Amino acid sequence: FLLARRGIPVTLLERHPDFAREFRGEILMPSGLDALTQMGFSEALEALPQVRVRALEAFRGAHRLFRIPPGDFGFGPRAISQPALLEMLAEAAGRFPAFHLERGAVAAELLERSGRVSGVRLLDGRELPADLVVGTDGRESLLRRRSGLDEVRTPQSFDIVWVKLPLPATAAAEEPTARVYLGRGHFALTFPTYGDQLQVGWVIQKGAFGELRRQGIDGWLSEMAGEVSPDLADHLRLNRASIQHPFLLNVVCDVLVRWTRPGLLLLGDAAHPMSPVGGQGINLALRDALVAANHLVPAALSGGDLDAAAGRVQAERLPETTRIQGLQQLPPRFLFGFTPLQRALRDVALPAMIHTGLLPLFFGRTLRSFGQGVTTVRLAV
User: Fold this and answer.
1) 183/185 Cα distance (integer angstroms)
2) 287 close to 373: Cβ distance less than 8 angstroms
3) Number of other residues whose CB lies within 10 A of the CB of residue 227
4) Which residue among 233, 294, 314, 346 is buried most deeply as judged by most CB within 10 Å?
5) Would you give the DSSP letter of residue 149?
6) With the CA atoms of 161, 209, 269 and 196 taken in that order, what torsion angle do they form, in degrees rounded to the nearest 10?
7) Rounded CA gap, 351 and 52, in Å?
8) Where does the pLDDT of residue 113 fall: very low under 50, low under 70, confident under 90, or very high at 90 and above?
9) pLDDT value at position 272?
10) What is the pLDDT of residues 147-205, one digit of tens each?
């Protein structure tokens, strides 16, 4: 959209015929909302199916440990329909003659000429030349695998199994609230999402999904029900029939040493897969896009060096990316630890800080970083 509206020819390859699929990274933080607002989509965003999360609660079984209104830290996340968001962006870009969207087009290989990426070869055999290939194909990026670029990975100790259920009637009548359940070795996350749905994540030890599959849905659903509050346990059992295809998120967190090579630039999760902690993936990707446009548009319009411009994108975005990835490692250690000190901090000290109003003093900066970012990103083109 940002390139095409400046008259730069863009061909977008979308491997699926439409965007009507299940997405799990639906949380837009103020940092991501700000990026879309700077692009001119503030009014269009309001028309999309969405839920504004008004509070975060932590439970141990039926006991609520604490409740935090995100507004206390100057932000409130939104769960926005990603299919609707993508269709909105594609429609807006399609108004420009320079934009061409090919649905059902699967990139299979990078084309190279004289040591430079010169385009892509599609699965159907067609070859599409390009002055610059921009890979935004996510954490399982094929272009990343084909690029030969190296990564630095931060080991993760957990994976998440996601399911969606109808929103409980009691929740529909209350203000939208996200919950985290701290169990005995397992944890659950829930938050309301658009379409009167409840997104439920079951946090498991990394590599344990095979055992979960052997238990079957009834087995692990029963295990989850034993770790959550009675109202959620009853709701899980009541909606057992709707849980047919749980989705495993293989949690990874890494960053490419170089996001570029001649003729190629990777952005978003293709360059730096984010942990799900703090709902950062889509938000950092949107900020990547603004910075990329700031550097690529002047180079493309003037016939300048696109590779040098791509390098400047990484230089500007890397500090925030690595800072946020570092912050993402802290909550799991604090919330999911089982030493006596960790339990005392979580179950006694944290609720006390909330009740006394001291929480912003200790954790406000971290939470604001997740919500608003750690650098200033301004669209200049």
Assistant:
1) 6
2) yes
3) 20
4) 314
5) -
6) -10
7) 24
8) very high
9) 97
10) 999 999 988 888 898 989 999 988 877 889 999 888 766 789 999 999 899 999 988 88
Residues 272 and 288: their CA atoms lie apart, in Å, by: 11
For the CA atoms of 45, 48, 54, 55, what is the dihedral angle to 10 degrees?
Answer: -110
Other Cβ atoms closer than 10 A to 322:
15
Specify the pLDDT at position 169. 85
Q: Map tokens 């439920």 to a residue.
A: 200
Mapping DSSP onto H, E and C, the string for 177-188 reads EEEEEECCCCEE
Q: Are 284 and 375 in contact (CB under 8 A)?
A: no
- Return the structure tokens found at 288: 């990547």
Question: Could you give the angle at the alpha carbon of 363 between the alpha carbons of 359 and 366, nearest 5°?
Answer: 150
Strands 55-60 and 177-182: parallel
- Which amino acid does the sequence have at 368? R
- Cβ atoms of 274 and 191 within 8 Å: the answer is no
With vertex at residue 20, the alpha carbon angle to CA 16 and CA 45, rounded to the nearest 5 degrees, is: 115
Q: CB–CB of 259/266 below 8 Å?
A: yes
Helix 209-225 / helix 230-238 crossing angle, nearest 10 deg: 120
Kindly compute the dihedral angle of the four CA atoms of residues 140, 142, 148, 152, in this order, to the nearest 10 degrees.
Answer: -10
Strands (E), 271-323: none
The residue type found at 107 is: A
Q: What angle do CA 56, 59, 63 make, to 5 degrees?
A: 130
Q: How far apart are CA 242 and CA 199, in angstroms?
A: 13
What is d(CA 166, CA 239) in angstroms, rounded to the nearest whole number? 8
Residues 6+ apart with CB under 8 A from 183: 60, 61, 226, 227, 228
CA–CA dist 268, 254 (Å, integer) = 11
The letter for the amino acid at 91 is E
Provide CB contacts within 8 A for 96, sequence distance 6+: 1, 4, 5, 7
Q: Model-level pTM? A: 0.91
- Are 249 and 24 in contact by the 8 Å Cβ rule? The answer is yes
How far lies 158's CA from each of 26, 154, 179, 190, in Å?
20, 12, 18, 17
Longest C-alpha distance within the chain, in Å?
65
